[in-house]
Amino acid sequence: MSTPPALQGVTVLDLSTVGPAARCARILADYGARLVKVGAPPSRSGVQIEPAWWSYGASRGMSRVRIDLKAPAGRDAFLRMAAAADVVLESYRPGVADRLGIGYADARKANESIVYCSLSGYGQRGPASQWAGHDLDYLAMGGYLDCSGRRADGGPALPGATIADAAAGGMQAAIAILAALLRRAATGAGEHLDVSVTDGVLSLMALAIDRKLATGEESTPGRDLLTGRYACYDTYAARDGRWLAVAAIERAFWANLCRALDLERWIPHQLDDARQGEIRADLRAVFATRTRDEWVAALAPADTCVAPVLSLGELAGQAHFRARGAFREARHPRHGAFSQLGPVLAGSAPAEPIAVPDTAETDTDALLRAVGYAESEIGALRESGVVA
Which candidate, 49, 64, 128, 265, has a CA 20 to 30 Å from the CA of 154? Predict the structure, then answer.
């Protein structure tokens, strides 16, 4: 007998389209929540970004309703849906949901036990709360960029992934929602969650921030172990131009690496600042003698903390990820068969084969029927353009 999904029976109304809240919605859906995407009708679709059909898991495991939330009848329809839901997830700028009449106070009147998550760049209060921003801004504000690598002109290098959106925002919101649902199970009470992506960046930066506060030491590029001060924690080019990541922090792993590379003389000098240039030069010279994959085959199983720097194109064919079922085949009604990253977080619901919906279609009628709308009422809402 299979284990039911962790969030089976939990209904989430998601007012987002892209960014951190869409990442949160993906997580909740992969844990089995009934995820309802609430978007604007075609006549108002220009006010929202419409993500590419393949993005955010191609909307797998999600339903879709289109409602004009600026119309009184549309607001009422949303609140009737909220009355039957467990979670509302919104990512408007602070104050917008209240002005639309669908903020926490409005949702709570419809459903006292609602968990209402407001996810924004800088939070619902504070001097920066009304600032517009994106992932790069949040990483800058939270101290991440200053600790990252540098470009040739000395400026902070752009990150290779939307870390703030995904981890500081989306994962933080999912954790907060799960905690609120657990609290509601004990108390029966809902709550309003003020999730700030930039606060999430602070959480990700806790080691560096706490070090600065406690000791005054900065974690800028090249200044400490995790930002490039020592050769034992760096990246190196192999003979074929591909790269290896070396993270031999512990003394035993560093010793293993040095022995495997015939560089035993550097074992006692791992943290000797005066010798780092020499050590790096020797490591670069040795790694340049074999291909990346040859080095990985020799070193990765030997307790050396060496891993390949994989390109995106290599990931789906990588043996470890294949063995873990990380990538799945999916089918789209219009685009046909394609591969996608499946539910990979621990305990998330398996789904294979994956059938993804056509986001041009909606489940509006069925969702409105489920909250008590008669066919004639749904027809009138469609006729007036309030729903689609």
Answer: 128
Which residue type does 372 have? G
Give the active site residue among 30, 137, 165, 282: 165
What pLDDT does 2 receive?
A: 74
Residue 252 lies inside a defined structural domain of this protein:
yes
The CATH number of residue 117's host domain is 3.40.50.10540
165 belongs to the catalytic site: yes
d(CA 301, CA 317) in angstroms, rounded, equals: 19
Structurally, the chain folds into a number of domains equal to 2
Q: Calculate the average pLDDT of the chain.
A: 95
- Asked whether residue 252 falls in the same domain as residue 136, the answer is no
**Residue 193 belongs to what H/E stretch?**
strand 191-196
Q: Catalytic one among 134, 146, 269, 363?
A: 134
Does 211 reside within a domain? no
Q: Is the dihedral of CA 355, 361, 363, 366 positive or negative?
A: negative
pLDDT in tens, 96-112: 999 999 999 999 999 99
Examine the domain organization and report whether 31 and 151 are in the same domain. yes
Residue percentage of the chain with pLDDT more than 70: 97
Whether residue 388 lies inside any domain: the answer is no
Residue 33 CA to residue 54 CA, distance in Å, equals 20
Residues 274 and 338 in one domain: no
Whether 240 is a known active-site residue: answer no
Q: Compute the C-alpha angle 70/384/85, nearest 5°.
A: 55
CA distance 98 to 171: 25
Nearest alpha carbon to residue 106 among 137, 141, 78, 139: 78
